[in-house]
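Dear support,

I submitted the protein below through the web form. The confirmation email said the job was done, but the results page showed an empty box. After a refresh the structure appeared. I'm attaching both so you can tell me whether what I see now is the final result or a partial one.
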Amino acid sequence: MNEHLLFFLSFFLTCSCLNGEFIHLKNRAGTEIEARILNYQNGQVKLERKDGAIFIVSISMFEEKSVNAIKRKVGHIIDTSITQSSILKSKVSRTQQSKVPFSRINDAVGQKLFIDTNLWDDTADEVGERLNWPVESATTSSISCRLYASADYRFLDARPYSAVFYGSADNVSSFSLVFANKGDCFAAAGLAEEHFKEGYVTNDPVELEKMIERDEGTLTKKLEGILGKGRRQNFGQGSAKRKVMRWDWNDHSFLVSVADGEFVSLSIEKSEVADKRGKQTKVADMHIRRVHEANVYKRSNGDVIISNIPMVDQGPKGYCVPATFERCMRYMEIPADMYLLAMAGNTGMGGGTVISTLVNAVQQEVWAAGRTLKIVDGFPSFKELEKYLKDGVPVLWGLHSTPWFNDTANRRTALRRSSQPDLWKKIIEKADEKADRLPRPQRGENLHICIIHGFNKTTEEIAFTDSWGPRFTERWISVKEAEHFSSGRCWVIEY
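What the results page shows now:
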């Protein structure tokens, strides 16, 4: 019998014996459960309760006695699996190691992507520096670097309009490059607030199809030239599910995807992820609740802020809706990509999303991840906002992002940093007296969506963050003004 198969059979039998017994566990909050251990890796333990519920949590959430019980139970399997998997990995790497040197991959890519045969042990700083992709987002658990490339930038001989990689402080985990697409190729205006200024858009679907066909051909030809013929497979789930062409090199899978009339993209994933077709494991509610509660912090001036919401920069296109939903979904441990969400939301060329269509698609993915998407008509009361935000749950806010609104938010945010709380409260009270006299935004005027992620109870202000890059991580406006500029609907992803 094949030695690899023998190893997997022995490993499976060891797991089966181990997983048969339920043990008593208690977390640091005093909650007790009976569960059996299904898996343990990188500080995360996979458990099955007696009612059949399966979830993954950090071992650090349990009291010391329960931690020791888990470690005793899994000790044998950890020791044997690490030893044997290391042996197996070295054998597999020797037999499957590609003869194509990493220098040839770099030559084909046209960028210094690799410095050896393993990209996955490089840190985000190292990769960002050698590719010269700027940091888009940095939280305590994740990092992303995104480049909106210039016209002369090339990757595999094609121009990526958006190029991003994701990872943590320790290592990178995946890459996503989008080439010809209906958003970036036909963006009418500039970045951030400039998006609302009128511009010229070709809006020619025939031209877009030619661009997509051209870039697909370029990428395919380049990858076939160095790695041979690719193979087709499915990848992703929900709005992210798509057909891809796959090429493998060592532990790296290059996946080219084409969505007719939408985009052509390249993903670089670990081969193990590609083998699993990109399917994600659900993360338990109680683990996420604990993480999100820890994300809430209070400043000395009374500001309460949710930290660690990942930034997604929509760039010069009108993708605020898919970009903002991606931010919240990723914060709630639900995989998302703004380009795929834009396709699900029937986003037009250059931007403009049918929110109801996108929300219907998002609901399916949120439910599949064990969460709920709640639609809030009107603008929430301050008490409702306070409840969500104190629990570390952000609120997606639909609004009219008019020039007056943006100018005021920018100015207030700058001034309040150096102002005393008592004095600032009086300034906000005077501003609120004028709010009722402000002209009402016209229906459909400068429609936008952002995230409310903070508040100040004393001054009755809210903090919000836009999908316009790191410079727009936090801005402030009064609650009364926020209600005035609301477009009449908010959304919350709940547990």
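Response: this is the final, complete result; the empty box was a page-load delay. The radius of gyration is 25 Å.
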